[in-house]
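Async update (no meeting this week)

Hi team, since we skipped the sync, here's where things stand on the single-chain job. The sequence we agreed to prioritize is pasted below, unchanged from the tracker. I ran it this morning and attached the output directly underneath so nobody has to dig for it. Comments welcome in thread, and please keep replies under the output.
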Amino acid sequence: MKIGLMGKKVGMTQIFDQEGKALPVTILQIGPCLITEIKNIESHGYEAIQIGYVKINQKKLNKPQTGHLSKQAIPPLKYLKEYRVESTKEFTIGKWITVKDLKMDKNISVSSKSIGKGFTGCVKRHKFSRGPMTHGSKNHKQPGSIGAGTTPGKVFAGKKMAGRMGGKQVTVKNLKIIDIKTKNNIIIVKGCIPGKPGNIISIHQK
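Output:
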């Protein structure tokens, strides 16, 4: 079955396999997550479940959020996210989803917010080549021609220029699960995941 969970990034390290090769891995603390709503074709036109993560004080939620959760006697949760599923028959409101529901033999996709770099220039943002640094050149890190003139008389949208870099939602697909620690709700994934330690992440396994 399709399964989605929320968690946070703990950090990166390396482990050694049986052949003695070093593998870069990311440690994720996943769930437990509580099913807060079930959507089906009759009511919403598609099959999906909504899960909640991290219990908080009810005073930190607004009235719509409190009303939504109190309908099903769900405790106040900070994060809510919806996941599409093939069938909702296996899910019930109030059921906890943990790392025990993940399968070792299937890869996962992880979504997270990448680290923000702020406003950057073309060289850092798009890997542009710099100009000469000597002989009176004043074109060190300038963007160069952007194509504007009588024709077309404008700059086309999507032109690679200076701007804000990072801080966007990024998804990394087909990451292999190395190990699952059910006692501490931790999974170890091969490879890197965008974002810094402590970021809220979302994983999906088909």
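Quick observations from my side:
The longest helix spans residues 63-70.
The CA atoms of residues 33 and 53 lie 5 Å apart.
Reply here if anything looks off.
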